[in-house]
UniProtKB/TrEMBL annotation, chains A, B, C:
Pathway: Cofactor biosynthesis; thiamine diphosphate biosynthesis; 4-methyl-5-(2-phosphoethyl)-thiazole from 5-(2-hydroxyethyl)-4-methylthiazole: step 1/1. Signal peptide: none annotated. This is Hydroxyethylthiazole kinase. Its cofactor is Mg(2+). The gene is thiM. Keywords: ATP-binding, Kinase, Magnesium, Metal-binding, Nucleotide-binding, Thiamine biosynthesis, Transferase.
Length: 272, 272, 272
């Protein structure tokens, strides 16, 4: 059963300490590295054209986050994603700011060709990305979560990958299979890079279970949400949340994880 | 009256959550984003030549900080500043390290042409910038605050903008109008990027009151100083200050703000 | 005696607040700047080809860290290192990820030509670097500490510099002179950039004692280890360690430093 395997995945990352190659944005590099370390993984950040493919080849998973992209970095992302695809290494895409500029949309259209295992974004980003994929112009970030869920299903089928829509409730979608995680806390949205961290943690989980991207995404979102709740319960504001979140990622135990977990199987779909 | 309107501006940022476009340095991107979030604003960092103008166009204000500039980023700054000027969107300049190298001085001379609404720097930077603007060579960072104040007045008149000189006392200057904020704490100088954060917060305030750059700068410096005092009162060193500062930005209430505020109108000038 | 001079060096950095020029990686720029400030130094980060030599010329020491290198930054590093060598300004090299890709190895081979005063890395990196220097191919990161120590001695002699091998015990090596510092705590390895911080702090110490790179490296590693122990004793996980570490760097006093110091002279060698 899915729920019982989640804690095993948390333990697997702690035990194997997988190398996760991140090509991510300047704002969150420090957070991302710290969160991966706290969860038990081993982060590496590298983007030089002269080494980016070599780094992907020695890593267990690749994470691409377009937050502060420019032409040099886009080329780095393409080189790494192509190598990951060639090696059948799982990679996770964070489409930060999808829909905000046509430049971002073009870059994302290109990256989708390299078959990410998982895409994680907020409702606006997933709506924008589904719209890009179906060549529809115009993105309304005011769409509801239900509409994001429909977009996630379409995107999942078009790209043949797992799609995570983050929010007050996180939805993990693959075709018509939908799981909801209702953990987390509103203060998390006041700390920059919490979404980017969720994407990186998903990469770590994929690295230790490359054949199980769906379960990896569920486990990662559950871990994020529960660690965020524990942090928010102690915190006096967003500054403290960031610190306590890392502490919680590192110290979380099985009993707390299972007692806090708020998972609902929205639609069982065909288990993958 | 100026003093009574400051808290209203704090509330306006929290209520409207303006999008603030930052082209800033690598060292402080994370702090800056977190401080904008904690103050209620919505940060975006973007610098690709292919999107930087589009991002400025959808933001309420632009913040340019030259801390870790290079040729690519300077071009990004120019593109964004030109677009902000064309759209009459307020933008705020942080002349980090003005006077340290001739490269920085040349870049600043160029950026001043795009009519920033506010310039915020420490005494040495404002002295250097005034010197650049008046084509005088040689900058002595050992000048006194009073001399920085004179330089601020000259710079304000030459560029037709508000100039903020940060220090133990912050001076907000426009022509002969001078307001002093005596809040803050020496430990803030031991946390990297506190000045950069002040500049970014000024951008958020300008975004919600684009016709009132002077009042926005005063409100931003007051908020920074008071949040810093509250943080330092709880802190055991500079590491804790950073965390508690974000908590204070987020939780500060009107009564505390007004009771802590140490504002002096040094010279009333002509209210703008 | 070496041990008695260490606290004097800590005080010297606090008293002189040397300017330390860092060309370092995106992940740790914020930490590095905060740690330098907390230790009493004055950090500057600058990499533009148009100013990097000027910045090195006004700094007391240069720190080069290749963590997130690319071609532009490698050129920056070479320009700065060449200027440092020409001015006989001490510079410290952090060979992050040495051995991971051939691109990194080629860059490191080039940088070694500019005569760093100190090289600091973990066992794998020092083994890789010694291997690069002796033109031997193939690096096994599973080598033991003792083998890293031999590599450190060879590297020190080949490059004519001090070599620091960080780990549970830190070894400071110059030729056959070896000092061991047994301070520190395992939680430090769960915070990104602690090694990079050690390198930057070493730069600050070299800046105030440019003729004493060996003693500077010992003092820096002692300060790092003791501050880390104090932080870990208070911390609930890696998130808190980062904060308390900065607090400890800032507040550490002579009595605590001397009572905590665990220094062993492994081999006296010829004092330099």
């Amino acid at each position: 059963m899915l729920q019982e395997q989640l804690w095993q995945q948390v333990q697997l990352v702690r035990a194997q300490s997988p190398l996760v190659h991140n090509i991510t944005n300047y704002v969150v590099m420090n957070n991302t590295a710290n969160a991966l370390l706290a969860a038990g993984a081993s982060p590496v950040m590298a983007h030089a054209h002269g080494e980016v493919e070599d780094m992907t080849a020695i890593a267990g998973a690749l994470v691409i986050n377009i937050g502060t992209l420019d032409d040099y970095w886009v080329k780095s992302m393409e080189l790494a994603a192509a190598r990951a695809k060639a090696l059948q290494r799982p990679w996770v895409l964070d489409p930060v700011g999808a829909g905000a500029t046509s430049y971002r949309n073009e870059v994302l259209r290109e990256l989708l060709k390299y078959s990410p295992a998982v895409i994680r974004g907020n409702a606006s980003e997933i709506l924008a990305l589904a719209s890009i994929e179906s060549a529809t112009k115009g993105v309304d970030s005011q769409h509801s979560s239900e509409q994001a869920l429909d977009a996630a299903k379409r995107l999942s089928e078009a790209v043949n990958c797992v799609v995570v829509v983050s929010g007050a409730v996180d939805y993990i979608v693959q075709g018509d299979r939908v799981t909801a995680i209702a953990n987390g806390h509103p203060l998390m949205a006041k700390v920059t890079g919490m979404g980017c961290t969720a994407t990186a943690i998903t990469g770590a989980f994929c690295a230790t279970a490359p054949q199980k991207p769906y379960q990896s995404a569920v486990a990662a979102m559950a871990l994020m949400g529960i660690a965020g709740e524990l942090a928010a319960a102690k915190a006096a504001g967003p500054g403290s949340v960031q610190q306590y979140f890392l502490d919680a990622l590192y110290t979380l135990d099985e009993q707390t994880f299972n007692s806090k977990l708020q998972l609902t199987i929205v639609h069982a779909g065909i288990p993958v």
